[in-house]
Amino acid sequence: MSAPVLAAYRYCETVTGQQARNFAYGIRLLPAEKRQAMSALYAFSRRVDDIGDGALAPEAKGRRLEDTRALLVRIKDGRIAEDDTDPVAVALADTARRFPIPLGALDELIDGVLADVRGETYETWDELKVYCRCVAGAIGRISLGVFGTVPGALDAERAPEYADTLGLALQLTNILRDVREDAGNGRTYLPAEDLAKFGCSEGFQGAVPPPGADFTGLVQFEVRRARALFAEGFRLLPMLDRRSGACVAAMAGIYHRLLTRIADDPAAVLRGRVSLPGREKAFVAVRGLSGLDARAIGRRQAESRRRG
């Protein structure tokens, strides 16, 4: 690996270490080459997200996002030199040469952030699911290009589907966690029909639910949906090699525990950001590296197939 490419990866790993609160726990479990690749993917995705969340006017955000899409085209076409001044582009271009990653999924990420910039809302779960596939399912599918599947893995052709579904589970958990913060920024992600069903159409501007709202019922409804997505997405784990499976088990396991914490105290998401302490995240990562989660999931799936 040339010195400029190595420096580009180091930059991306620094970005990941500083900004990826949950993602970094899983990445640390990967061998160096895959860790570098995942850091490049994260750094590019972080750039896209930061444009969407930044202080620019919507028109300026749109231009910046389309400029980033143009950069992605250059990466796809192999037009990024090793001495390019953009370290994220250099690292991602090298990753694309080393791994069979579907770079088109990053176009979907840009589409999803553009939807945020336009302030789109969602009437139904089917509509929200399209958005979640853009901003999270796409990351699952592109990450699978780095992980690969083990030879002879059962149902390996469904691995992209499971990676996508796991991304949906993580994103729905994020939406529940950030419901008040998003409301303060003028964003509503939960489907309008769900909000109406539980009397929550007025939104979530305060630390208590609107009068007459069944906020707990709404959260538990969405938690059940997220748990079903996790159960389906976790079918990916036995298809991965030990360290890739540990990475996914750690990242998804952190969000799965976060979802449980939200389910135990739904109103907590209105009082502030719900999170896990660092020691609990580290425990989840150790379980992932030991293979405990993957084996437990495999046993549950085998038992489900026997019953079915």
Architecture overview:
It is a single chain. This protein is mainly α and 308 residues long. It has 2 domains: 1-119, Farnesyl Diphosphate Synthase (Orthogonal Bundle), CATH 1.10.600; 121-308, Farnesyl Diphosphate Synthase (Orthogonal Bundle), CATH 1.10.600. The protein is built from 15 helices and no strands. It has helices at 3-19, 23-27, 32-53, 58-76, 87-98, 104-118, 125-147, 159-177, 179-184, 192-197, 215-233, 242-264, 268-271, 278-290, 292-307. Helix 3 runs parallel beside helix 6 and helix 3 (32-53) runs antiparallel to helix 7 (125-147).
Identify the CATH class of the largest domain: Mainly Alpha
Helix content: over 70%
Largest sheet: none
CATH architectural type of the largest domain? Orthogonal Bundle
Number of helices: 15
Order of helices and strands: HHHHHHHHHHHHHHH
Dominant shape: globular
Chain-averaged pLDDT? 90
Backbone CA Rg: 20 Å
CATH-assigned homologous superfamily of the largest domain = Farnesyl Diphosphate Synthase
- Distance between the ends: 50 Å
Task: Kindly name the structural category.
Answer: mainly alpha
CATH topology of the largest domain: Farnesyl Diphosphate Synthase
Note poorly predicted spans. none
Beta percentage is: under 5%
Please tell me the total number of domains: 2
Protein name: Squalene synthase HpnD
Keywords: Transferase
Pathway: Carotenoid biosynthesis; phytoene biosynthesis
InterPro entries: Isoprenoid_synthase_dom_sf (IPR008949), SQ_synth_HpnD-like (IPR017828), Squ/phyt_synthse (IPR002060), Squalene/phytoene_synthase_CS (IPR019845), Trans_IPPS_bact-type (IPR044843), Trans_IPPS_HH (IPR033904)
